[in-house]
Amino acid sequence: MIPFNKPYMTGDELYYIKDAVARGKISGNGYYTEKCHTYFKEQIGFRNCLLTSSCTDALEMAAILVDIQPGDEVIMPSYTFVSTANAFVLRGAKIIFGDSYTNNPNIDANHLEKLITQKTKAIVVVHYAGVACDMDKIMDLANKHNVYVIEDAAQAIDSYYKGKPLGSIGHLAAFSFHETKNIISGEGGMLVVNDERFDKRAEIIWEKGTNRSAFFRGEVDKYSWVDIGSSFLPSDVTAAFLYAQLENLAKIQTRRKMLWFNYQKGLAQLEENNFLQLPYIPEDASVNGHLFYLVCKDIEERTQFIAFLKGYDIHCVFHYLSLHKSPFYGQNSGSQELPHCDHFADRLVRLPLYYELDMTHQDRIVELIKRFFSKINS
Ligand SMILES: *Cc1c(COP(=O)(O)O)cnc(C)c1O
């Protein structure tokens, strides 16, 4: 059986967890949390970051930081995970969905400006599959209209836009270390703070609305309730697990990218024949090997495709359903047309891609995909 995903354990996780336990302090903001923060700052170049219990948490922190008030509008793609929207809905925001490009599920920057109103507070971009959004255009637009940009970089570790790491461009960014992502800690995430105006408050919101972090640095003589907040910080056991993964980031990325390019090479002929569509990588974007997908002709073909591979014990999954058509959003939003988002929601399939995917197994997947599309198009 070839699963869709298999979380990769580097082998060092228990060593660091054991050490965290031996240190006798396993709550949040401890030794390994600090080591992870330092890694991200020094090795990737993030200005300031805070580990969280999930990317969802980091997005919720971002919504609090940009001070979303009931009635504020937040623009984002409809082709995304629910957390991108929920974090802002929880603070009373009205979500305005933008459409995808025709050749890429990311939000179409050329049609963003008409969505901006007096009430727009933020634009949330999602780097789908770790492929960068059109950040120059989006940042220019945001600066022109004085709105914040938050990067949902859940899938975007070790990916770049014009040489800049994704997550370092918007005012704030959120990463995920869920077990389906490249670097994992079971559940886990991180908020990146690129705009220094948010530094102080981010730390307070992270620590339940208290100035506890400043207290431990000796900056205040007692710690108090100073703002809203929650328990967004992960335990140091989670951070210890993540640290083991971070030390192996280069190795993990080399393998995942190799598998990604194998799929691209193996399936290129099918795209040339117009049998399917493969991921489009804009010139300014990089590949981080997060996920490989193909786009079928229609929903029926996709259903057949998934069933065909399932018959050989190979598990593929489709992905996001258009949020603008979801039961929660659809009922109070009228009838918005986002055809390119629907295009991907109906046709996109994700192929198995994980560190331990055997190359002979991958060759077999590619052969079977070729067989399926040759047959259906003959
Ligand atoms: C995985 C993912 C999330 C949620 O991450 P969690 O860490 O599970 O909260 C949010 N947005 C996108 C685009 C994701 O892929």
TrEMBL record:
What broad class of enzyme is this? transferase
Q: Which UniProt keywords apply?
A: Aminotransferase, Pyridoxal phosphate, Transferase
Task: Output the InterPro entries linked to this UniProt entry.
Answer: DegT/StrS_aminotransferase, PyrdxlP-dep_Trfase, PyrdxlP-dep_Trfase_major, PyrdxlP-dep_Trfase_small, WecE-like
What is this enzyme's EC?
2.6.1.59
Task: Name a GO molecular-function annotation.
Answer: dTDP-4-amino-4,6-dideoxygalactose transaminase activity
Q: Which residues form a coiled coil?
A: none
Similarity comment text for this entry: Belongs to the DegT/DnrJ/EryC1 family.
Protein name (database record): dTDP-4-amino-4,6-dideoxygalactose transaminase
